[in-house]
């Protein structure tokens, strides 16, 4: 049984914004250290990663985001979800982790900060073989990749899968997880990332600048992380009973990346192929599944760049440009 330890009182540094806007509106803030309740864990953050979710909330775009995050301004000022660090204190009801444990997961307050408050079921032990920076890269991206492939895509050993956007934050995990599930994997990426995707275990790599993956081979499953091709073209690359999972990509101020998934859902009613929208839901069981892959050496987080906390706006700006190879991480 864990013994409750008093959380540090006072203030801490964090990166956040009090109104929607560009990365230029993010500031290094001095805010109160998150209060610790009976069911919570306080983590001294060593590293946090940034995700498209973070800049969608930062900008309040597409406008649909504001239904949950605040109509006129963000409900929470501190940005970030994914984090890794050392448990500083635990609530009296917490039994899964103890002070001093190295953990990673997702928080409730905002991960781009010196401390983060999380539920005990939102944290898992950090494998000894990876750094805090690598661990922070895992939660949202790896769980999204796993759920898109295994749960939504129903990927099984021996099937063929194409991952459009294989060199990005989710894509680098998707390639490795698909291989771990026994699939024949094709990754689509830019010329400069071909060797990276091949090194992750992809059986085939398509340079989108040289070849059109929608003309030629057909796949049992396509996981689209980019949203840069029409649904008609994507269906052309599917087997007659194949599955298409729309995860991300696409522009627009109103529904943005939801446009292609909504089209897929509509068309799926009239064709033999499964055309599915997808939205990940973080849960501890999936994070533990990913953790086992890391422990077994089947999954290695790819970190493109790291930034200190004070330069977190630059980290989000770089991620928004769309050229990151793997994940972008902020250290504290």
Question: How is this structure best described in words?
Answer:
The protein has 332 residues and is α/β, with parallel strands linked by helices. It folds into 2 domains: 11-138 and 301-331, Quinone Oxidoreductase, Chain A, domain 1 (Alpha-Beta Complex); 141-277, NAD(P)-binding Rossmann-like Domain (Rossmann fold, 3-Layer(aba) Sandwich). The chain has 10 helices and 15 strands. It has helices at 52-59, 66-69, 132-136, 139-152, 169-180, 194-199, 231-236, 259-268, 284-295, 312-320, and strands spanning 11-16, 27-32, 40-50, 82-90, 102-106, 115-119, 123-125, 160-164, 184-189, 204-207, 219-224, 238-246, 274-277, 303-308, 327-331. The strands form 3 sheets. Strands 3, 4, 5, 6, 7, 14 and 15 form a 7-stranded mixed beta sheet that branches. A 6-stranded parallel beta sheet has the order 10-9-8-11-12-13. Strand 8, helix 5 and strand 9 form a beta-alpha-beta unit. It is globular and about 60 Å long. The two termini are 30 Å apart.
Question: Descriptors for this entry?
Answer:
332 residues, alpha/beta, Quinone Oxidoreductase, Chain A, domain 1, Rossmann fold, 2 domains, 7-stranded mixed beta sheet, 6-stranded parallel beta sheet, 10 helices, 15 strands, 26% helix, globular, disordered N terminus
Radius of gyration: 20 Å
Output mean pLDDT: 90
Name the CATH superfamily assignment of the largest domain. Medium-chain alcohol dehydrogenases, catalytic domain
Helix/strand/pairing category:
alpha/beta
CATH topology of the largest domain: Quinone Oxidoreductase, Chain A, domain 1
The total count of helices amounts to 10
Total strand segments? 15
**What's the number of structural domains?**
2
- Low-confidence segments: 1-7
CATH class of the largest domain: Alpha Beta
Distance between the termini: 30 Å
For the sheet with most strands, the description reads: 7 strands, mixed
Element-level helix/strand string: EEEHHEEEEHHEHEHEEHEHEHEHE
Measured as a percent range, the helix fraction is 25-40%
Proportion of residues in β-strands: 25-35%
Which descriptor suits the 3D outline? globular
From the coordinates shown, what is the CATH architecture of the largest domain? Alpha-Beta Complex
């Amino acid at each position: 049984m864990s013994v409750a330890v008093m959380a540090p009182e006072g203030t801490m540094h964090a990166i956040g914004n009090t109104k929607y806007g560009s990365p230029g509106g993010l500031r290094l803030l001095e805010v109160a250290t998150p209060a610790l309740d009976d069911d919570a864990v306080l983590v001294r953050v060593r590293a946090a990663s940034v995700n498209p979710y973070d800049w969608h909330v930062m900008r309040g775009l597409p406008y649909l985001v504001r239904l949950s995050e605040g109509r006129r301004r963000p409900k929470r000022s501190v940005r970030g979800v994914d984090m890794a660090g050392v448990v500083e204190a635990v609530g009296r009801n917490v039994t899964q982790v103890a002070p001093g444990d190295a953990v990673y997961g997702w928080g409730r307050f905002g991960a781009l900060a010196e401390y983060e408050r999380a539920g005990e079921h939102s944290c898992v032990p950090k494998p000894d073989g990876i750094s805090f920076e690598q661990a922070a890269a895992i939660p949202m991206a790896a769980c999204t990749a796993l759920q898109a492939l295994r749960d939504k895509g129903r990927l099984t050993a021996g099937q063929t899968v194409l991952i459009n956007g294989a060199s990005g934050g989710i894509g680098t995990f998707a390639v490795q997880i698909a291989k771990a599930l026994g699939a024949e994997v094709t990754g689509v990426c830019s010329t400069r990332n071909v060797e990276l995707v091949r090194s992750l275990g992809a059986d085939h790599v398509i340079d989108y600048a040289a070849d059109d993956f929608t003309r030629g081979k057909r796949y049992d499953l396509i996981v689209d992380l980019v949203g840069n091709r029409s649904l008609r073209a994507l269906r052309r690359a599917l087997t007659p009973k194949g599955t298409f999972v729309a995860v991300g990509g696409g522009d627009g101020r109103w529904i943005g990346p939801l446009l292609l998934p909504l089209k897929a859902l509509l068309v799926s009613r009239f064709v033999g192929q499964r055309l599915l929208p997808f939205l990940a839901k973080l849960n501890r069981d999936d994070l533990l599944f990913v953790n086992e892959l890391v422990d077994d050496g089947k999954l290695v987080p790819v970190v493109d760049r790291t930034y200190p906390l004070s330069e977190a706006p630059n980290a989000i700006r770089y991620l928004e440009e769309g050229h990151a190879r793997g994940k972008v991480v902020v250290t504290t």
